[in-house]
Write a structure and sequence with these properties.
D-Maltodextrin-Binding Protein, domain 2, 42% helix, 2 domains, two-stranded antiparallel ribbon, ten-stranded mixed sheet, alpha/beta, 12 helices
Length: 281
């Protein structure tokens, strides 16, 4: 397995070398070449400085802080391994869901890795890698506030319940569509919201799975989930500037390689298919 990983890393590095050595076609104007040819500046810059800058925003379990205020999560693991395989260092740059795409386009970092949902609207502003997984929405509620059959109560706004959702996310837009009659509380810190949910200050939290199920499993005496599977699923991918096709190609090749090797599934087993990570928050 170690030999296969080394061979795979060398193959990826060879792909990067080809990208960086590809000449510009000489029979087109400089202006046309600039418009029609994807820029390799970001990949070249990463190679020269030896590090990749990754924009991250809290979105458990893809990106979160542990008890020592260190970045952890599925996307953190993926980016750390990608950088290691490419023989780069990795720098995690904090951003927010409201500003992440603008920050990417402004050059504050090279890639967004934060459980980023794929939408046509976002695709007009950035370029996605291939998706690495898809996730359904979930709703976890305080047992004292809502019973197992009380979803209609939230949808109609009966009882004026307070439901938290990460600000600036696709989930926030979905929550407004389905739960807009309740009081939606847009948050940036899921850890604080979880405490408020457990003590009854909040009545519910809508988020992508597995967070709702993991919370209900970990705090069974306080929390339960309501079935919102009808609200749909979203696919996750990494986001890059639209001019950075070379870096997209390298990331896609890495995703294919690690998926075939089974490494991505091994990390998903911990972060997606278990609730053990809740104790790290």
């Amino acid at each position: 397995m170690r030999l296969l990983r080394v061979m795979g890393c060398l193959a990826l590095l060879a792909v990067v070398a080809v990208f960086l050595q590809t000449p510009v076609i000489s029979n087109v104007s400089a202006k046309t070449a600039h418009v029609s040819q994807p820029s390799s500046d970001t990949l070249s810059t990463i190679q020269k400085r030896g590090s990749i800058r990754v924009g991250v925003a809290v979105n458990a379990p893809w990106v979160l802080h542990d008890k020592n205020d260190q970045w952890i999560g599925l996307d953190i693991d993926l980016m750390q391994q990608f950088a290691q395989d490419m023989r780069w260092k990795v720098e995690f740059v904090p951003t927010t869901w409201s500003t992440a795409i603008d920050d990417l386009r402004a050059g504050k970092f090279d890639v967004i890795a934060a459980g980023l949902s794929v939408t046509p609207q976002r695709a007009a502003l950035l370029k996605y890698t291939q998706p690495y997984a898809s996730f359904a929405l979930g709703l976890v509620v305080n047992r004292k506030s809502l019973g197992k059959d009380d979803l209609l109560t939230l949808e109609t706004g009966t009882g004026k319940h307070r439901v938290a959702v990460l600000s600036g996310t696709v989930t926030a837009s979905t929550a407004k569509e389905y739960l807009g009659n309740s009081e939606l509380v847009e948050i940036n810190d899921e850890s604080k919201a979880i405490q408020d949910l457990r003590n009854g200050t909040l009545d519910g939290l809508i988020a992508e799975q597995p967070l709702p199920d993991a919370l209900a499993h970990s705090y069974q005496d306080q929390l339960r989930t309501l079935d919102v599977s009808a609200y749909g699923k979203t696919a996750h991918a990494f986001g890059l500037r639209r001019t950075d096709q070379d870096l997209v190609d390298v990331l896609n090749a890495w995703l294919v390689y690690e998926d075939a090797a089974g490494w991505i599934q091994s990390r998903e087993q911990f972060w997606i298919h278990s609730a053990a990570w809740i104790e790290l928050m």
